[in-house]
Amino acid sequence: MRLRVYDLSHGLARQLAPVLIGRPVEGIWHTSIAVHGTEYYWGGDLIAEPEGRTQYGQPSRTVDLGTTHKSTEEVRAFVEAARARFNPGTYSLLTHNCNNFSNE
């Protein structure tokens, strides 16, 4: 199981933030969880795609989270149950986003 971390700005936040907002910003982060060959993430809707084949390209970094004893079916059931909390109506860019989903 892996946490995949993407910089949506592709390095521009790091370069431009000091000039635009007067302080450093490392990146604009999007995260996903990869387990059993599938990458799960929330971008307004919960999405499952083959690991490494998302629209975000290559991650800035990947963090090994260890192994899970949950089967593929159990992981999918968890994601389906999470739809009540993670859907287009509950999305907030600053307070309830992909990072909250990855954390859960």
Structure, described:
The chain is an alpha+beta fold and 104 residues long. The protein contains 3 helices and 5 strands, in the order βαββββαα. The chain has helices spanning 12-20, 72-82, 98-103, and strands at residues 2-7, 29-35, 38-42, 46-50, 61-64. A 5-stranded antiparallel sheet has the order 4-3-2-1-5. A hairpin with a 3-residue loop joins strand 3 (38-42) and strand 4 (46-50). It is globular and about 50 Å long. The model has no long low-confidence stretch (mean pLDDT 93).
Offer a few descriptive terms.
25% helix; 104 residues; single chain; 26% strand; 5-stranded antiparallel β-sheet; alpha+beta
Rough outline: globular
Q: Sheet with the most strands?
A: 5 strands, antiparallel
Oligomer: single chain
| Total number of strands | 5
* DSSP summary: helix tally: 3
User: Which radius of gyration do the C-alpha atoms yield?
Assistant: 15 Å
For the largest sheet, list the strands in their spatial order. 4-3-2-1-5
Distance between the termini: 14 Å
Write down the secondary-structure element order.
EHEEEEHH
Strand content: 25-35%
Low-confidence stretches: none
User: Taking all residues together, what is the mean pLDDT?
Assistant: 93
Helical fraction = 25-40%
Which structural category fits the helices and strands? Answer: alpha+beta
Secondary-structure map:
Layout lengths: L1 E6 L4 H9 L8 E7 L2 E5 L3 E5 L10 E4 L7 H11 L15 H6 L1
Antiparallel strand pairs: 1-2, 1-5, 2-3, 3-4
